[in-house]
Amino acid sequence: MEGDSVTLHTDVKTDQQAKIRWYYYDTRIAQISGDLSKTCTDVQCNEGTERFRERLKLDHQTGSLTITNTREVDSGVYRLRIISSDTITEKVFIVAVYDVPAAEQDKMKRKSVKKGESVTLDPGEVKNLNDSMTWYFNDTLIAEITGDPNKTCSDGQCEDPDGRFRDRLHLDHQTGSLTITNTSTTDSGEYKLQMNRSRISIIRSFSVIVTDSRVSSAAKGGVFAVIVFVVVLLFTAAAVAAGIYYRHRKSTQGLNGMFRLHSNNEGNGALHSEWGLTDDC
Predict the structure, then answer these.
(1) Which part of the chain is the Immunoglobulin domain (predicted)?
(2) 120 and 86, same structural domain?
(3) What digits encode the pLDDT tens for the residues 172-214?
(4) Domain membership of residue 170 as a residue range
(5) Are 56 and 70 in contact (CB under 8 A)?
(6) How far apart are CA 126 and CA 123, in angstroms?
(7) Within a domain: 275
(8) pLDDT tens-digit readout, 102-126
(9) What's the gap between Cα 153 and its chain centre?
(10) Which of 51, 59, 66 is nearest to 7 (CA)?
(11) N or C end of the chain: which has fewer CB within 10 A?
(12) Total of domains in the chain
């Protein structure tokens, strides 16, 4: 599936003399030597070859090649050539990356549930009998299925030091899907599934968010209370402003009635007040 990481395993360990070369069809895309003096990937190996654009990683211990954030155009034939002092070994890998609509990927890889509900993470792959599937939570091994039923584990049987899930994990041995029951907010985080099939490993990431409905309700109540308080505050401020304006207007009208002056056209032009006072005073 697009977006996954795919690792092609050499099943060997490098030595000082061996050279490991990776080809995509006939184009060299990666190389490593035992002394690490001639290591390259993608455009470093061939100028103008930018198909993978820094998405290739080499394991310096084994020479295994990992392609991150895979795309449909990465599908095809990959060839491995191991050159030692006296032998040349070649292996062929067929990689098929299929495109999945973004909405479907989001539905599959991103899960959001309420506290106490169950959530199932589905690999979306048909599991073969000898496939091994390993589940990680924030890089901690929490569940594993191998071809040997005696080597299947979950939660405390694996490497879960704090017993976070406490018997709340259920593995489907037919599909490899992982179900978390009675979820808690502490179950939120990144889950990774590593699927090992023959000499190819696939890593798929899942995001889980667990929300507490009680916290959400309390938060909503708090927001509502704040809104009510603000509305009351605005009404109070408006009422106070209206009262001040009314008193100011009334006072102004009274003063205008007491002190408004006008000219007397009948006399010598002296000003008289509304009180009827004359210059005889």
Answers:
(1) 1-98, 108-211
(2) no
(3) 888 899 999 999 999 999 999 999 988 999 999 999 999 998 7
(4) 102-211
(5) no
(6) 8
(7) no
(8) 888 888 899 999 999 999 999 988 7
(9) 28
(10) 66
(11) C
(12) 2
